[in-house]
TrEMBL record:
Top-level taxon in the UniProt lineage: Eukaryota
Matching SUPFAM superfamilies: Multidrug resistance efflux transporter EmrE
Residues passing through the membrane, by range: 33-57, 236-255, 261-280, 301-324, 336-356, 363-386, 392-410
Originating species: Stercorarius parasiticus (Parasitic jaeger)
GO molecular function terms listed in the Swiss-Prot or TrEMBL record: 3'-phosphoadenosine 5'-phosphosulfate transmembrane transporter activity
Membrane topology: Multi-pass membrane protein
Keywords recorded for this protein, A-Z: Membrane, Signal, Transmembrane, Transmembrane helix, Transport
Protein name per the record: Adenosine 3'-phospho 5'-phosphosulfate transporter 1
Locations listed in the record: Membrane
Length: 431
């Protein structure tokens, strides 16, 4: 009975000869791979019965024979209206509001408002994320304090607030008629909570700047997932920028600074968790693109995904008994409570700023703002938490962000060229 725990506890050391931090040596149950399988088992306890119920209703042809008070709920969850949008072009984005009689000063004010909202939300979110996952709470001269270890609880906190905000927004504003079967949101939800869990958990093993660069490099797996899931094709400049991003990230990861603190060392476990984050996140975005073939708004998507995210995470936490344990930790440390609540508020507000910015100014402006945010996040983390970056590492960061801006520029040029093509000519393929 002791073989499996010992193997799990020694896996990262055997794989890369890394040292497990002292905080993780207290119990093999704290090891990330064990926690991952426990969380996955909790999700499976909800997914498997749900899958069997969906198959039962479909085989029984419930849409034709069903009656009673539960019929509308089951129809919405299992069948939907099955009315898809005829045009999938930019289905993931609402039609951008073109300024008609708006003054230049008003547009500048809107742009500054959007940029400030996105920067404030996600920079604060990044700083708090690193604080919660890497620092102790309740430390005194005699007591070293304790770390918060349950990343899934933070995911739950983020999702419950996002679910509430999206639900209120949908209830108070006019939305398109919903047609997608609700169960289809569960796929994006599952990959979304797993990617978020990997993101939080990775901070126990890698520095925050490394995590930010890993997010920037997710362009590569997104392209791979696009080919596999959506059968997309890409232009040569997209492959070029993806290669530049790979080179920049490699330069940063291979650079070494003297006397690096243990919390800033990139370990094998951290690399695996970042890879998991990128893979799950890439699937999420591509699956959501496929869901947008149904007529829906981004806020409806946000609501549907977060409904299942709350269901999965609260179910898993209750099964493990971790929900009460996390609440007790929150009760012991009021500072952690404030950080967790503010983390959730920043995440939910950030999503609303995303939708508003894309609606007002388009995806290109939004991408530039978020790319700048990533650069500011690295700088802020280095200033606050004392991370060191070598010259080679700094060049790697510069290469990554140069490739990202080149990607935005090339995409905007390509869209302008496609608009100028006469109706009789062959249009350039949309990417």
């Amino acid at each position: 009975r002791f073989c499996l725990p010992l193997m799990l506890a020694s896996l990262p050391t055997m794989a890369a000869g890394e040292e497990i931090p002292a905080a993780l040596q207290e119990s093999w149950g704290d090891f990330w791979l064990f926690r991952f399988f426990i969380n996955a088992a909790g999700y499976a306890s909800i997914v498997v019965p749900g899958f069997l119920l969906i198959q039962y209703f479909k085989r029984r042809n419930y849409l034709e024979t069903g009656r009673g008070i539960c019929f509308p709920v089951i129809k919405s969850c299992v069948f939907g209206s099955e009315v898809k949008s005829l045009h999938q072009e930019d289905g993931s984005l609402p039609p951008r509001a073109e300024p008609t009689e708006s003054s230049t000063a008003r547009q500048v004010f809107k742009l500054v408002f959007c940029a400030a909202g996105l920067q404030a939300s996600y920079l604060t979110w990044g700083v708090l994320q690193e604080r919660v996952m890497t620092r102790t709470y309740g430390a005194t001269e005699t007591d070293p304090g304790e770390k918060f270890k349950d990343s899934q609880f933070l995911v739950f906190m983020n999702r419950i607030l996002a679910f509430t905000v999206a639900g209120l927004y949908c209830a108070l504003t006019k939305q398109p008629r919903h047609g997608a079967p609700m169960y289809k949101y569960s796929f994006a939800s599952l990959s979304n909570i797993l990617s978020s869990w990997c993101q939080y958990e990775a901070l126990k093993y890698v520095s925050f700047p490394t995590q930010v660069l890993a997010k920037a490099s997710k362009v590569i797996p997104v392209m791979m997932m696009g080919k596999l899931v959506s059968r997309k094709s890409y232009e040569y400049w997209e492959y070029l920028t993806a290669a530049l991003i790979s080179v920049g990230v490699s330069m940063f990861l291979l650079s070494s600074a003297p006397n690096r603190h243990m919390s800033t060392v990139t370990t094998f476990s951290g690399i695996v968790l970042l890879a998991g984050y990128i893979i799950f996140d890439s699937f999420t975005s591509n699956w959501q693109d496929a869901l947008f073939t149904y007529k829906m708004s981004p806020v409806q998507m946000m609501f549907g995904v977060n409904v299942f995210s709350c269901l999965f995470t609260v179910g898993s936490l209750l099964e493990q008994g971790a929900l009460l344990e996390s609440v007790r930790f929150m009760a012991r440390h009021s500072e952690f409570m404030a950080h967790a609540v503010l983390l959730s508020v920043c995440s939910a507000c950030g999503q609303l700023f995303i939708f508003y910015t894309i609606n007002q100014f388009g995806a290109a402006v939004f991408t530039i703002i978020m790319t700048l945010r990533q650069a500011f996040a690295i700088l802020l983390s280095c200033l606050i938490y004392g991370h060191t970056v070598t010259v080679m590492g700094g060049l790697g960061v510069a290469v990554v962000f140069m490739a990202l801006f080149l990607r935005v520029y090339a995409r905007s040029r390509m869209k302008k060229r496609s608009k100028k093509i006469p109706p009789g000519d062959t249009p350039i393929q949309k990417v």
